[in-house]
């Protein structure tokens, strides 16, 4: 007997019928004798609808009110699940972030959890209740409602699992685990039984949409075993866990892609101290995240600098960079929206040589030009022309033998 945290995403709670299915999964754990905390997202599409409402009300909605509004989707699902559970004869209690006291900092829309008060929930658990908690939200020191960023209910679930020292955190979603790559574009994609926190984090950050990166960071920090499972089938599942030294290391565990990329190049910049700071400071002040950066070796006192941003930030970034380019005496600014980033990920890279060369060669054989490269210990990313995304993923999957084992 232990304590389990279950998290269900938007597609798993999209209507009352599906919420009944969730209730079934909760009851099964309860009947097995576990204490149970269930964390829910809003119904699929609801958070987007609320965001559109806010943006239709004002071009610049007040941040506090914006978070109050977009957090409401979860209130609907947690109370509905509790109603369903009660109706099925189980004691259940729903909690909003402030009712638990999931305390966060005050950065609306991307608040970070600082502490979770376990008392109120523990009291309900002691009474035998299934506790149902709203994901994605918290409360700051001044009692303002905050939200944790899109996909934030994963982080809510892992944070609760850490606070309660749960035996497991089960993340139920519409896929039955973590795959070597997107099965939608590569028929040979294989489900992984296990993946390390570090690999999962790189996968989440380079385009796999299964878990919010912050939830993986937190799982690693507190060593929470996370299972990614399907809401709709009992088969499969992937365990995200710490590196197992015994495990024979595969070179790669996965290939990801991200089409949400735009490339900006500042051409012919006078090469002197401070130009990079001049370019990137105004972007960070506007909360625009820069992903890859490449600066060419300077020749005759001039250099080019290329970087990528998310598509949604492209227009704003371009405007800011064009202003700075003028100030620092650069020649011009070029933008390219037809790009994508393809990444290969694996802890085995550390001990195998030639992985990068193999990646580049595999793409060269298909005539795919690499525009930018970045690496970490366990990841290599390339920016390529967007139209080659599927081809690149498929040939790399083949070249590194990630296909289903026969
Ligand atoms: N409902 C929120 C969102 O759509 C949080 C979540 O789904 O994890 O981003
Ligand atoms: Mg999600």
How would the blueprint of this fold be written?
Layout: E1 3-8, H1 16-31, E2 35-40, H2 46-57, H3 63-70, H4 72-87, E3 92-95, H5 97-100, E4 102-104, E5 113-116, H6 119-126, E6 130-134, E7 137-139, E8 145-147, H7 153-163, E9 168-173, E10 194-196, H8 197-205, H9 213-222, E11 226-230, E12 238-241, E13 254-270, H10 275-285, E14 290-295, E15 302-309, H11 314-328, E16 332-345, H12 355-365, E17 372-376, E18 379-385, H13 389-399
Parallel strand pairs: 1-2, 1-9, 2-6, 3-6, 9-11, 10-12
Antiparallel strand pairs: 4-5, 7-8, 11-12, 13-15, 13-16, 14-15, 16-18, 17-18
Helix pairs in contact: 1-4, 7-9, 8-9, 10-11, 12-13
Spatial order of the strands in the main sheet?
3-6-2-1-9-11-12-10
Number of strands: 18
Rounded mean pLDDT is 95
Enumerate the distinct ligands: aspartic acid, magnesium ion
CATH class of the domain at 3-174: Alpha Beta
Helical coverage, percent range: 25-40%
Number of helices: 13
Please tell me about this protein's structure.
This protein is of the alpha/beta class and 406 residues long. The chain has a domain at 3-174: Acetylglutamate kinase-like (Carbamate kinase). Helices cover 35% and strands 27% of the residues. It is built from 13 helices and 18 strands. Strand 17 and strand 18 form a beta hairpin. The longest helix is centred in the first third of the chain and has 16 residues, at 16-31. The two termini are 38 Å apart. It binds aspartic acid and magnesium ion.
């Amino acid at each position: 007997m232990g304590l389990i945290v279950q998290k269900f995403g938007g597609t798993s709670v999209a209507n009352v019928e599906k919420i009944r299915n969730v209730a079934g999964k909760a009851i099964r754990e309860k009947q097995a004798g576990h204490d149970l905390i269930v964390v829910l997202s809003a119904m699929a599409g609801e958070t987007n609808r609320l965001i559109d409402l806010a943006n239709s009300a004002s071009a610049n909605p007040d941040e506090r009110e914006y978070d109050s509004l977009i957090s409401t989707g979860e209130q609907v699902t947690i109370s509905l699940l509790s109603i369903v559970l009660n109706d099925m004869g189980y004691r259940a209690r729903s909690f909003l972030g402030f009712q638990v006291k999931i305390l966060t900092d005050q950065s609306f829309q991307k608040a970070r959890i600082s502490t979770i008060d376990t008392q109120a929930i523990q009291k309900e658990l002691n009474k035998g209740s299934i506790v149902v908690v709203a994901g994605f939200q918290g409360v700051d020191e001044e009692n303002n409602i905050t939200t944790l960023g899109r996909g934030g209910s994963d982080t809510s679930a892992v944070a609760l699992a850490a606070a309660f020292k749960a035996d497991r955190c089960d993340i139920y979603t519409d896929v039955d685990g973590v795959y070597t790559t997107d099965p939608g574009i590569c028929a040979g994609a294989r489900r992984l039984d296990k993946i390390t926190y570090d690999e999962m984090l790189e996968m989440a950050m380079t385009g796999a949409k299964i878990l919010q990166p912050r939830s993986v960071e937190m799982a690693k920090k507190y060593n929470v075993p996370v299972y990614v499972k399907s809401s709709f089938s009992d088969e499969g599942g992937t365990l995200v866990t710490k590196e197992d030294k015994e495990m024979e290391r595969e070179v790669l565990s996965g290939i990801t892609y991200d089409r949400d990329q735009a490339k900006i190049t500042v051409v012919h910049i006078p090469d002197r101290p401070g130009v990079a700071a001049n370019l990137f400071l105004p972007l960070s002040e506007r909360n625009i995240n820069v992903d890859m950066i490449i600066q060419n070796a300077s020749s005759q006192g001039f250099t080019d600098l290329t970087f990528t941003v998310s598509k949604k930030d492209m227009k704003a970034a371009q405007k800011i960079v064009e202003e700075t380019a003028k100030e620092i005496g650069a020649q011009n600014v070029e933008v390219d929206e037809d790009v994508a980033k393809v990444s290969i990920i694996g802890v085995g890279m550390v001990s195998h040589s030639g992985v990068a060369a193999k990646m580049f060669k595999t793409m060269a054989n298909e005539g795919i030009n690499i525009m930018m490269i970045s690496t970490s210990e366990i990841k290599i990313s390339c920016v390529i022309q967007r139209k080659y995304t599927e081809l690149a993923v498929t040939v790399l999957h083949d070249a590194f033998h990630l296909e289903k084992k026969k």
